[in-house]
Amino acid sequence: xxxxxxxxxxxxxxxxxxxxxxxxxxxxxxxxxxxxxxxxxxxxxxxxxxxxxxxxxxxxxxxxxxxxxxxxxxxxxxxxxxxxxxxxxxxxxxxxxxxxxxxxxxxxxxxxxxxxxxxxxxxxxxxxxxxxxxxxxxxxxxxxxxxxxxxxxxxxxxxxxxxxxxxxxxxxxxxxxxxxxxxxxxxxxxxxxxxxxxxxxxxxxxxxxxxxxxxxxxxxxxxxxxxxxxxxxxxxxxxxxxxxxxxxxxxxxxxxxxxxxxxxxxxxxxxxxxxxxxxxxxxxxxxxxxxxxxxxxxxxxxxxxxxxxxxxxxxxxxxxxxxxxxxxxxxxxxxxxxxxxxxxxxxxxxxxxxxxxxxxxxxxxxxxxxxxxxxxxxxxxxxxxxxxxxxxxxxxxxxxxxxxxxxxxxxxxxxxxxxxxxxxxx
Length: 426
Ligand code: RM4
Ligand code: MN
Ligand code: MN
Fold this sequence. Notes:
The protein is an alpha/beta fold. The chain has helices at 5-32, 37-46, 75-89, 107-116, 149-169, 190-206, 233-243, 262-271, 297-313, 333-352, 356-364, 368-380, 384-393, 400-406, 409-417; strands at 50-52, 94-96, 120-121, 124-125, 173-176, 181-182, 213-217, 227-228, 247-252, 275-280, 321-324.
């Protein structure tokens, strides 16, 4: 299924008047207050977030998986799903592949399909947290950190293979997330595990093309429960620094212990030019992988406020690889992704409304109340008309969820693919 331009403009007709009224009201108010509205809108239109290839299926938990009808059962269909998201929202112009869940069988055909839908290939993700069919070594006790050289070598080789696959598709980054760690005290030697991981990452780094980045993701727990080798941003940064200039830290929102100050983490990493990628999701308890903005939208805004500051003031930090890293236990995956994309745009738009000069002045005056007012005034603004305009300007729909339902996208997918299809992934 493909959504064409006519369907989009036909659909937009229903909502245009309402949108125009809301937009004019907001744009006037913002302009009066000194904002450059068209600049904000073009920043919003340009912002693109990658969709992970594993998020297009139903997901599940370790207690079970409830399938969702019409799931994509191969990479072609997954790209088609990203194409649907992108044509509606115009903010999902990239896909992030997880290998070996999504190894292309025909590179040329996949690239052509993605090109036709204006989808780029973002960072590729390696997987050394599951044993692969026919592999001679097991990752039960770790991969890049394993005490056995044979296991480490197999995991290094897998990462090099992933780089090779990504290279053929035009990806420019490898994301490494390790499940390595220990579930019981004494199970492993922290120093040896860390050093092995560093050495293995250096071997992978040596195979990185010049214009690529290595993104090192961290996570404090799960699937190991007592320790993880790359537990936090400090460990990730040490490993990235140990590899070289092309290695960076990747922050995933769900990979923090409760109440961690994530906005401060991203801020300092940008200052040091070492924030390479960002995974969006939301959570109540842990790595819940819930819809972005569904639980802590104010935190997301505070994080975006730092990201915007960094994008404007830290030229030493490269462009970031943005990705949604969520899993949909009970929702239609495409609807869930649309809600996440909206939440991201909303937090970004609100952060763009923070008057950085005014905030800096209030900080210098130690006017704590005013600092809070500045942030919260931005946060309390209903920016949805700006996001609608940003989408409209580049050919998207005013309300993606409404359009998705009105066009009966899921019904069409079920007709095309059948009911009981199952996507690869989590
Ligand atoms: C991990 C981590 C990685 C993702 C896998 C599927 O928790 O967030 O980024 O690749 O899940
Ligand atoms: Mn992640
Ligand atoms: Mn995760």
